[in-house]
């Protein structure tokens, strides 16, 4: 095959026709008159076995045969132009996502069939996360510091010991009048700069408190004050997914012990990685009555961080995805918030019909809604928050008028945006971190097992 630019020097079955990947790329470019773009570190010191045997008359079939062996994906950028990147296990194409939904829909055709599938998924999700192997919750009391009062609400800093020596920190927002039963709203954080301290998170939780709810925002694992115990890179370890779900469950355990917390009116809403937690928590915890996943629901994107997909939950029962996991909320009310500039862009046409079919098994399609913002991007911005407020007001019995202007628009101007240090539980210099706090991921693994 020297006429095609493929060297055969010293290439035999004895060495598996092995060639440097970079040399194979050069041969591909020459033979098919294409250009392949890639970062140098992706191909350095890599070799392709049976290189020449992978070539086909069709360029796309050849590229697949060569690069699939390297866990490298190929994206066509234009006529004769291709880009290489490391295989991303959490991503499919939109077309592949739709095909998976079609396959999943073929597994059940009625409520009874879905209930069997749902029960099996729930068992597998718990097992994949190893939730039943986690240490029991310590008997320690939450650490509560520095109560502040603002216009219509209060804020307190809270740390909860979820397993021995491991703390999750958050901010508890309550209405000034706590004499009546209050809905509880969990607000898991996502992968946005500044974490739970950012202004849109404060606006959201404070506004919910002004509407009459008890709202709790909390750190991702190894973010925020959790970074006092773990390194930043520990957030991208698979066990982070388990810890974040366990944290949410044990936060809810504590919140429901609060005076006048209403156990029948529990909601959860987060965006991006917080949206992943929202869907998974709702699937696993029947105490959650209402869910609002934001900027996350997708048939082809399972969450790019191991804290969202690292424990293999999407491999359960022959393979599932976030749409089927979100469907496990049925028949509980659910608002899916999507936008036009991330992987939720297809929700109205692809993911929503799948959810509607599942809710239809219960005759409850009326409690499933989608707020789609085609001109917006990946955030939990003002329009998305407004949609969430209205939905939770209807399903939790909250006072929407308390946060509306005379014209009926959402008005968040009464919210005080606090500086970050005001929200710290353990102090600006971690001087209040408990003595029993562990300080490494290795110590965590000793407790929970690898």
UniProtKB/TrEMBL annotation:
Where does the secretion signal sit in this chain?
Answer: none
| Database matches in Gene3D superfamilies | alpha/beta hydrolase
Q: What is this protein called?
A: Acetylxylan esterase
Q: Which organism is it from?
A: Arsenicibacter rosenii
């Amino acid at each position: 095959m020297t006429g095609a630019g493929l060297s055969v020097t010293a290439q035999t079955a004895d060495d598996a026709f092995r060639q440097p990947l970079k040399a194979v790329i050069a041969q591909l470019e020459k033979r098919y008159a294409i250009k392949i773009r890639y970062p140098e570190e992706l191909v350095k010191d890599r070799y392709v076995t049976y290189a020449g045997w992978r070539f086909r008359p069709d360029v796309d079939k050849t590229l697949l045969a060569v690069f699939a062996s390297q866990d490298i994906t190929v994206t066509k950028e234009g006529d004769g132009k291709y880009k290489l990147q490391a295989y991303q296990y959490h991503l499919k194409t939109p077309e592949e996502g739709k095909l998976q939904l079609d396959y999943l829909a073929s597994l059940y055709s009625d409520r009874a069939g879905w209930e069997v599938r749902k029960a099996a998924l729930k068992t597998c999700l718990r097992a994949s996360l190893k939730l039943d192997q986690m240490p029991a919750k310590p008997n320690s009391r939450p650490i509560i510091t520095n109560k502040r009062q603002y216009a219509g609400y209060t804020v307190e800093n809270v740390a909860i010991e979820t397993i021995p020596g491991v703390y999750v920190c958050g901010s508890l927002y309550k209405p000034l009048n706590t004499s009546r039963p209050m809905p509880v709203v969990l607000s898991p954080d996502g992968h946005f700069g500044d974490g739970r301290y950012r202004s849109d998170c404060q606006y959201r939780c404070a506004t919910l408190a002004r509407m009459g709810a008890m709202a709790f925002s909390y750190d991702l694992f190894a973010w925020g004050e959790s970074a006092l115990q773990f390194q930043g890179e520990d957030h991208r370890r698979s066990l982070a997914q388990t810890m974040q779900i366990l944290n949410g469950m044990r936060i809810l355990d504590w919140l429901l012990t609060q005076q006048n917390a209403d156990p029948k009116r529990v909601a959860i809403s987060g965006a991006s990685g917080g949206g992943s937690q929202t869907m998974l928590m709702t699937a696993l915890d029947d105490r959650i009555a209402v869910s609002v996943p934001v900027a996350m629901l997708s048939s082809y994107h399972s969450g790019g961080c191991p804290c969202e997909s690292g424990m293999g939950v999407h491999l359960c029962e022959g393979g599932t995805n976030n749409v089927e996991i979100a469907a496990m909320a049925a028949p509980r009310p659910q608002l899916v918030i999507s936008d036009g500039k991330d992987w939720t862009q297809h929700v109205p046409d692809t993911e929503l019909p799948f959810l509607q079919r599942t809710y239809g098994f219960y005759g409850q399609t009326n409690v499933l809604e989608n707020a789609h913002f085609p001109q917006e991007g990946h955030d939990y911005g003002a329009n998305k928050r407004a949609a969430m407020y209205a939905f939770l007001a209807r399903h939790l019995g909250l006072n929407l008028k308390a946060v509306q202007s005379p014209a009926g628009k959402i008005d968040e101007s009464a919210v005080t945006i606090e500086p970050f240090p005001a929200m710290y539980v353990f102090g600006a210099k971690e001087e209040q971190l408990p003595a029993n706090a562990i300080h490494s991921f290795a110590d965590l693994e000793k407790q929970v097992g690898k």
